[in-house]
Design brief:
By secondary structure, this protein is α/β, with parallel strands linked by helices. The protein is 23% helix and 20% strand. The structure holds flavin-adenine dinucleotide.
């Protein structure tokens, strides 16, 4: 391990959606020093900017490329589980749909004993982050750092889908982030002039010139360090510039773990924070017994709805358009070749149009 241990006021682990906001807000105080550690490389890849190229980032160095365990609710399948690994985190590889949580979800979290998480309490924060040119100003924000736009050039099939949904009786809704969230609409997206606008664009870049903010990429936290039950620093693997060194940094005020849904609990468990029996079972010294860590995960799988199109309009998933097709695109290509069309595939009988197993992914 490196002998030198640098000192900061705050250490933030993970430069994803949350970490970029934290790094910005904490370093806004010129009297506070902040270290932001990001395991992945910088976000310089062109495909990060191009909205439709998101799937080209899957299974690359910009993705943790996880696979779930066998899921009882999904007939025992294991799913590919992408997670962003770069500045911006998953906001640099996601599908950019801007959908705020449902009012009732926030209210339920508050009811469960989390003061401050009710919808009325979180609404001002949503408004503060949004830069959105339309919608009810009592509910939407106009001047925040996160650019939210309408789709510039929606696919004709998307418009047809919305029309069809309205035709069968679903309510049309001009703003699903407004007063009523139910209904069918074209999504708004986190983009600016047709380019992805990640959390790094919104929060990290404007703060990068601050002298009190240090951003380190290819720096993977391996342990939170504790002294007398208090988090005092982070041990991390420094992989920048071909290095492979363990280093430590100390935090005078706080260590903030923002590694995302999978990696935050993983880092805590590796650091000895979690259910005592689980930790002892794998030989990790218990620093703080905390039963909830690593449990109670809720997520939603993505399912591709696959249908034959008489016209070549389905650019989003046209296998030929993808440089390195993920499993589902390869499947489409194979199915299309069998049927004599590049993008056509039929849903399996009994699956009501839901994508084949290889086409499902958890996000
Ligand atoms: C493919 C995909 C599509 C999605 N589509 C949408 C969408 O359309 N709309 C929507 O609202 N949401 C979408 N999401 C979800 C959304 O992007 C995430 O909920 C959000 O970005 C999570 O933010 P986070 O800060 O919790 O984690 P992340 O943004 O994932 O950030 C975690 C960061 O921590 C880093 N990190 C992890 N462990 C360590 C470590 N040990 N040391 C150092 N760094 C570490 C990671 O590399 C990453 O950069 C999608 C997600 C994915 C993966």
């Amino acid at each position: 391990m490196s002998e030198i241990s640098e000192m900061f006021d705050y250490i933030v682990v993970g430069a994803g959606s949350a970490g970029c906001v934290l790094a910005n807000r904490l370093s806004a105080d010129p009297g506070a020093t902040v270290l932001l550690l990001e395991a992945g490389p910088p976000d310089r890849k062109l495909e990060i900017r191009v909205p439709a190229a998101a799937t080209k980032l899957f299974k690359t160095p910009y993705d943790w490329d996880y696979t779930t365990t066998s899921q009882p609710g999904l007939a025992g399948r294991e799913l590919y589980w992408p997670r962003g690994k770069t500045l911006g985190g998953s906001s640099a590889i996601n599908f950019q749909i801007y959908a705020r949580g449902h009012r009732s979800d926030f209210d339920r979290w508050a009811e469960l004993g989390n003061p401050g998480w009710g919808f009325e309490q979180v609404l001002p924060y949503f408004q503060r982050l949004e830069r959105c040119s339309r919608g009810d100003p009592r509910l939407r924000g106009r001047t925040g750092p996160l650019c939210i736009q309408d789709l510039r050039d929606p696919n004709p099939m998307t418009r047809a889908f919305v029309r069809a949904a309205v035709d069968v009786g679903l309510p049309a809704n001009d703003d699903v982030n407004g007063a009523v969230q139910d209904g069918v609409a074209l999504s708004q997206v986190t983009q600016r002039r047709g380019r992805r606008w990640s959390a790094a664009d919104a929060y990290l870049r404007p703060a990068r010139r601050r002298r009190n903010l240090t951003v380190r990429t290819r720096a993977r936290a391996t342990r939170v360090l504790f002294e007398r039950g208090r988090a005092v620093g982070v041990e991390y693997l420094d992989l920048a510039g071909g290095r492979h060194e363990l280093a430590t940094a100390r935090a005078g005020r706080e260590v903030i773990v923002a590694g995302g849904t999978v990696n935050s609990p993983h880092l805590l468990l590796c650091s000895g924070v979690g259910p005592a029996e689980v930790l002892r079972g794998v030989g990790v010294r218990v620093v703080h017994a905390l039963p909830g860590v690593g449990g109670n995960l809720q997520d939603h799988p993505v399912v591709w709805v696959v249908a034959a199109s008489p016209q070549p309009l389905s650019a989003g998933l046209r296998a030929r358009a993808l440089h390195r097709p993920p499993a589902q695109a390869a499947h489409l290509a194979r199915a299309g070749r069998r049927r004599g069309s590049a993008a056509a595939a039929q849903p399996r009988p009994g699956h009501a149009g839901i994508g084949r197993p290889a086409g499902a992914a958890a996000t």
